[in-house]
Amino acid sequence: MDIQDTRQLKAFSAQRLEHNQDAEKIVLLFAALALGSSALVSLINYLISLQISKSGGLGNLGIRSVLSTVQTMLPLVQSLLVKILELGYLAAMLRVARGQFVSERTLKLGFDRFWPLLRLLLLEGLIYLALEFGCIYLAVMIYLMTPLSRPVIQLLMPLMQDASVLSSGLVLDDALYDQLMAAMTPVFLICGLLFCVAAVPVIYQYRMAEYVLIDRPGLGAMAALRESRKMMRRNRLKLLRVDISLWWFYAAVLLANVIGYGDTILPMLGVSLPLSEDAAYYLFYALSLVLLFAVYYFLRNRAEVTYALVYDALRPKEKQDGVVLGNIFQM
């Protein structure tokens, strides 16, 4: 199948979904688990915040530290859980794309492949972190070696003249700090531009890694990244065209997430709500989850089966039979 023909891809995706009624049950369960876990974590964080506010005094310092640590770790655990569920969901959509039998048990694949998935996420995180640090360093060098840095030098020069060996003399009040941040805006813009230029090709290089992890259980995380890089060689622009053709899905997800910040956006537009800040926050958060659930249920299957078809079109032809997806214990 030619992945450049996005109409054919989406038409074949719709045909596969039409002949597999179990796909609706899969996405319903996945959306309920993924978004339900997010709502549960938010509720637990709210209850922990109430408990922290009640635990005053030095005697309860240890309790507050433990609760704060739990509050920090919960979103990380929830994000990892979503990635585990998502791997099983992608496996289900890959089976749908191949016209194979699929059931709710396919969602368990993420738990069966937990350690390879965790290593894959850590490796990807390290790669993107290295790119970020490299972009920051290069952006700072460009900023310092060009006239863009003159406003910062002019602000700091009077303070440097008053500095001595025993006293640095660099005391930044709030007004000066705001001026420095405004003067350093070009650094942030350059860094963002560099990161987009450097990171986007890398992200597209590894877009197929999770499918490789699903389809070839004998491979580890590093090998999955390597195989994804091979498949995406000279195919990144083709996948970009597929992404653009699915703009309606990404626009719906973006809209649902933006609505979640309604408690911040409306006051900026001069609209006030007859609600407390906490009530407005949780109202828009709940509305965002409801809209995301609808987007997942009605749109996500079509998008993910399309991407599964892209993977099948790009993978080496001599490796067409995925062992894990044919395992009856993971259907």
Tell me the number of strands. Answer: 0
Compute the number of helices.
14
Can you tell me the overall shape? globular
Strand content: under 5%
N-to-C order of helices and strands: HHHHHHHHHHHHHH
Share of helical residues: over 70%
Distance from first to last alpha carbon: 25 Å
Radius of gyration, in Å, reads 25 Å
How many domain regions? 1
Unreliable spans are 319-326
Averaged pLDDT: 88
Major β-sheet annotation: none
- The structural class is mainly alpha
What would you note in describing this structure?
The chain is an all-alpha fold and about 325 residues long. It has one domain (about 5-330). It contains 14 helices and no strands. Helix 1 crosses helix 14, helix 2 runs antiparallel to helix 3 (about 60-95) and helix 5 crosses helix 10.
Task: Explain the layout of strands and helices.
Elements: H1 6-18, H2 22-54, H3 61-97, H4 109-112, H5 114-144, H6 150-161, H7 174-183, H8 185-205, H9 209-215, H10 221-232, H11 236-245, H12 247-259, H13 262-268, H14 277-314
Task: Please give a quick description of this structure.
With 331 residues, the protein is mainly alpha-helical. The chain has one domain (6-330). The chain is 75% helix and 0% strand.
Defining key terms:
0% strand; 331 residues; mainly alpha
